[in-house]
């Protein structure tokens, strides 16, 4: 799904370049803007990175060219005497961005896949393990959607001693660092119809699966990038609203429109009835076609049918409860906004700042690959800060990459604020993109 979001924003490239041309840049060793220095001796700074998308095969992995820079940043973090914690807010591993025709596990299992990822990205895993084993900085991992199905044991097998924060259900987690309960860090995918865990669909064909439709779309998107061919091999049959249908049929038509738009954006050379999507992951064992995923209709205005994810339009309410979503959204809105970064930003505000049961004042999401800071206001008129931690993928059209967030908590002195700063590390030069502060 994120491939679509990146390509959809290509038209903003010139605008973004003009904005960041004025950003402050300096050598990361310059103590005056050293992102990992608080100017004192206290070890209290929290660094957040997300969306590394480390893959098992660099032939198609989204993060390849940036691995060296990521290693250097991690080395700087390890050496920083003021950093208390490094939080990886999801999509550290990438089990989704694998071309549809590729056997993800190569006939083995997820444990072996994790080891292949660690081997392919050795410099990064060595740097992370060095931080963990050094013991001065706590390294915390929170799940994202691309590593949604990764078990804690398989994460631990390649990052021995990493601190994992997970909900009771697989694939989700929200983290408030110790001593800082007003901060919430999560990936942000639990609010997305295409990306939130789905334990209700496909249980007849893949018992126990939680993979949502975004998994299958991403497999198709990865194949599109591998083929690099803009000539579509097929087109989807037109589906029209069911003239005598109920709300469920209307929702299914909305779901078809989302698939129609995304498939058109990422043409592949294969026919849509070809069983090109190899699974053997997440409970699935069969091979599937695009036609297996997209709603169909035998006659115009008639009944709309669906094979994989049959009935998905009817259990979004139950899915949100399963995913521990505090404030539920309507199904129609959720389907219509699957490609909207703004909806993810809005959800941070709705779930935390406008929610009277929440006391969070600073929220960090990843997921959208769109680094930003937004100043919000809570339901009781208190200043709040939302920050998106961006990504480390090689190509992020219209946006920067190599992003990270640094939070410096307030002190006992009432004149001090909690500082939130957003940076990037492109060309291995620290650029401060935005900053804000508050006191709670």
Write up what this structure looks like.
With 440 residues, this protein is of the alpha/beta class. It has a domain at 2-98 and 119-146 and 158-194 and 339-438: Purple Acid Phosphatase, chain A, domain 2. It is 27% helix and 16% strand. The strands form 3 sheets. An 8-stranded mixed beta sheet has the order 1-15-14-13-2-3-4-5, covered by helices on one side. It has a 5-stranded mixed beta sheet with strand order 6-7-10-12-11, with helices on one face. A two-stranded antiparallel sheet has the order 8-9. It is globular, with a radius of gyration of 22 Å.
What keywords describe this structure?
440 residues, alpha/beta, Purple Acid Phosphatase, chain A, domain 2, eight-stranded mixed β-sheet, five-stranded mixed β-sheet, 11 helices, 16% strand, globular
Write out the CATH superfamily name of the domain at 2-98 and 119-146 and 158-194 and 339-438. Metallo-dependent phosphatases
Q: What is the helix/strand order? A: HHEEHEHHEHEEEHHEEHHHEEEEEE
CATH fold-type name of the domain at 2-98 and 119-146 and 158-194 and 339-438: Purple Acid Phosphatase, chain A, domain 2
> Which value, in Å, is the CA radius of gyration?
22 Å
CATH architecture of the domain at 2-98 and 119-146 and 158-194 and 339-438: 4-Layer Sandwich
Q: Structural class, judged by helices and strands?
A: alpha/beta
Arithmetic mean pLDDT? 93
Low-confidence stretches: 4-32
Q: Could you give the distance between the termini?
A: 36 Å
């Amino acid at each position: 799904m994120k491939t679509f979001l990146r390509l959809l924003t290509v038209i903003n490239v010139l605008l973004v370049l003009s904005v960041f041309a004025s950003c402050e840049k300096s050598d990361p060793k310059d103590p005056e803007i050293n992102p990992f220095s608080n100017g004192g001796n206290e070890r209290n700074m929290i660094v957040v990175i997300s969306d590394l998308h480390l893959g098992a095969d660099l032939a198609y992995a989204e993060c390849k060219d940036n691995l060296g820079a990521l290693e250097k940043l991690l080395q700087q973090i390890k050496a920083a005497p003021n950093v208390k914690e490094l939080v990886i807010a999801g999509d550290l591993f990438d089990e989704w961005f694998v071309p549809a025709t590729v056997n993800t596990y190569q006939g083995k299992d997820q444990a072996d896949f994790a080891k292949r990822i660690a081997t392919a990205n050795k410099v990064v895993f060595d740097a992370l393990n060095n931080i963990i084993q050094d013991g001065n900085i706590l390294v915390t991992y929170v799940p994202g959607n691309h590593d949604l199905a990764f078990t804690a044991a398989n994460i631990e097998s390649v990052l021995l001693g990493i601190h994992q924060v997970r909900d009771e259900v697989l694939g989700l987690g929200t983290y408030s660092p110790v001593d800082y309960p007003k901060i919430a860090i999560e990936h942000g995918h639990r609010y997305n119809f295409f990306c939130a865990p789905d334990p209700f669909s496909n249980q007849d064909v893949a018992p126990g699966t939680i993979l949502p439709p975004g998994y299958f779309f991403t497999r198709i998107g990865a194949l599109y990038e591998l083929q690099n061919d803009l000539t579509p091999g097929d087109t989807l049959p037109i589906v029209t609203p069911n003239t005598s249908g109920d709300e469920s049929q209307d929702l299914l038509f909305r779901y078809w429109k989302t698939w129609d738009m995304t498939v058109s954006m990422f043409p592949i050379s294969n026919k849509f009835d070809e069983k090109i999507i190899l699974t053997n992951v997440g409970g699935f064992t069969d091979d599937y076609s695009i036609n297996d995923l997209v709603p169909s209709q035998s006659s115009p205005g008639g009944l709309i049918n669906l094979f994989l994810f049959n009935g998905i339009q009817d259990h979004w309410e139950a899915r949100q409860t399963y995913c521990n979503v505090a404030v539920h959204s309507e199904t129609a809105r959720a389907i219509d906004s699957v490609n909207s970064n703004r909806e993810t930003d809005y959800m941070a505000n709705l779930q935390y700042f406008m929610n009277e049961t929440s006391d969070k004042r600073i929220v960090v999401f990843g997921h959208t690959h769109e680094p930003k800071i937004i100043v919000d206001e809570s339901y009781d008129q208190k200043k709040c800060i939302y920050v998106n931690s961006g990504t480390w993928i090689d190509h992020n059209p219209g946006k920067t990459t190599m992003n990270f967030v640094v939070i410096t908590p307030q002190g006992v002195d009432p004149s001090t604020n909690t500082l939130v700063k957003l940076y990037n590390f492109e060309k291995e030069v620290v650029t401060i993109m935005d900053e804000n502060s508050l006191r709670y």
